[in-house]
């Protein structure tokens, strides 16, 4: 049975760290569902937000291997996280936009850009709600959809 796991990893902000972590997953046949990395302001560290899945044994092995990596400062894989994901959706201006405003309001969304052919809307919400938004927005016949990985912060 596959379990979804949210892992936040604090690492030294140095070259090659991301490659080592990706290699750890790839070398053992583990999948990364989403991966987001950014430096922690005013520090020498970066935060990796990793969403993965597997059985309990696989997930335990992932966490143990992350702890063994030299540049790893801290691995947080349990507890409460605030998790948000972003999506950008391109919709042709030729579409009927009736109801679009209500959908955007329901999912913390807004129109972020427009040109003579398209509008681009952005939403930022929980992962499950992003899934629901993408189902709802299909009625507007989007021509392109980009999802960002989850970002995490422990409580």
Explain what you see:
The structure is a single chain. The chain is α+β, with helices and mostly antiparallel strands and 155 residues long. A hairpin with a 3-residue loop joins β6 and β7 (118-125). The mean pLDDT is 91. Strands 5, 6, 7, 8 and 9 form a 5-stranded antiparallel β-sheet that branches. It has 4 helices and 9 strands, in the order βαββαββαββαββ. The protein has 2 domains: 3-78, ACT domain (Alpha-Beta Plaits); 82-154, 2-Layer Sandwich (Alpha-Beta Plaits). The longest helix has 13 residues, at 56-68.
**Count of helices?**
4
Based on CA atoms alone, the radius of gyration comes out at 18 Å
Name the beta content range: 35-45%
CATH class of the largest domain: Alpha Beta
Given the C-alpha coordinates, what overall shape results? elongated
How are helices and strands ordered from N to C? EHEEHEEHEEHEE
User: How far apart are the termini?
Assistant: 28 Å
Low-confidence stretches: none
Q: How many domain units? A: 2
Q: What helical percentage do the residues reach?
A: 25-40%
Quantity of strands, as a count: 9
Structural class: alpha+beta
Largest sheet: 5 strands, antiparallel
CATH architecture classification of the largest domain: 2-Layer Sandwich
User: Can you give the mean pLDDT?
Assistant: 91
CATH topology of the largest domain: Alpha-Beta Plaits
The CATH homologous superfamily of the largest domain is called ACT domain
């Amino acid at each position: 049975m596959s379990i979804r796991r949210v892992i936040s990893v604090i690492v030294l902000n140095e070259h090659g760290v991301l490659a080592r972590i990706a290699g750890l997953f790839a070398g053992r046949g583990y999948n990364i569902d989403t991966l987001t990395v950014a430096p922690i302001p005013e520090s020498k560290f970066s935060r990796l937000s990793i969403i993965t899945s597997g059985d309990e044994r696989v997930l335990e092995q992932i966490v143990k291997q992350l702890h063994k990596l030299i540049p790893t400062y801290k691995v947080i894989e349990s507890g409460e996280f605030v998790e948000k994901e972003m999506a950008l959706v391109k919709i042709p201006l030729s579409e009927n936009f009736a109801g679009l405003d209500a959908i955007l309001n329901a999912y913390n969304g807004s129109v972020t850009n427009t040109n003579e052919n398209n509008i681009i809307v952005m939403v930022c919400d929980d992962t499950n709600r992003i899934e629901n938004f993408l189902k709802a927005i299909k009625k507007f016949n989007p021509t392109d959809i980009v999802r960002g990985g989850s970002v995490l912060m422990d409580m």
